[in-house]
Amino acid sequence: MTDTEVPTRSENESTSAHAVFVDIDGTLCDSRQRIPESALEALDQVRARGHRLFACTGRSAPEVYPRFWEVGFEGLVGGAGGYACVGNEVLLDERMPRGHVDVLTALWEELDAFYIWQGPDQMGPSKGYLDFFVPRAGKHPEDWIEYAQSITPFIVDIDGGSFTKVTAYVPPEKASMERVTAALPDGYRAIIGSVGAAGYVPFEVVPTHLSKAVGIRAICEHVGIPLSHTVALGDSNNDVEAVARAAVGISIGGVCDDLVAVADIVAPAVGQGGLAWALAAAGLIDEAPTPA
Q1: pLDDT tens sequence across 111-138
Q2: Comparing C-alpha atoms, which of 97, 102, 90, 133 is closest to residue 115?
Q3: pTM above threshold 0.85
Q4: Which of 32, 163, 182, 251 could bond to 119 as cystine, CB 3.0-4.6 Å?
């Protein structure tokens, strides 16, 4: 399907509740963390039709701001699949062994990277991480100040923390996927993250058996919605498993080749009204609100 064709819902298509899993960065919001008004309107319409919304993100819980929850998410697949909850009920909460945290921390130090350990209740930034990342992640230095404010209450020393995943920003001259992969403990994988900063290459590392698809399955089993009634939307490498696993998988922006390869629908970018367009293309609403 092209990004100019919007399918219509057939008369005999089921109208029962769907579970809709929405990535945050590059899907719900742009690089400045702005949510388009068309996306908010479309998500309201999805909820009004009885469908259920869940955030499905590489972010951990402390990185999901209250205003993101206010769009109507009932639960979270966080940490790229290492954590899942519905309301206050935790369904998954997997943490890395301390030895693996130490090995990966040593790797990032060797590569002169800025990095942050992420967990559902603890965040472990490296020395200078926030000073590096916050003014450089968006188009303007103030775009990500909200991020620092959100995670600061959860910051702990890395040596004593308990974490789900790690994101590292590696200088481009040292950003070799082969080098990073060779240094990983057994049972781990690295992917390129979706939020850049100052030309540094973002690596996300999680256990191989975890992905957003694992969190999707856990939530669907909990709420009693079959996988045949799921929609997943994302824009980058850490969305591939989720988009492939959902009954309807959607690539926002079409810039990640691996994601496009498994998607059922390729939608415009978030700044072009892509989320609203995609929800209409999936048959969850009748017509996408016009982008502002």
Answers
A1: 999 999 999 999 999 999 999 999 999 9
A2: 133
A3: yes
A4: 163
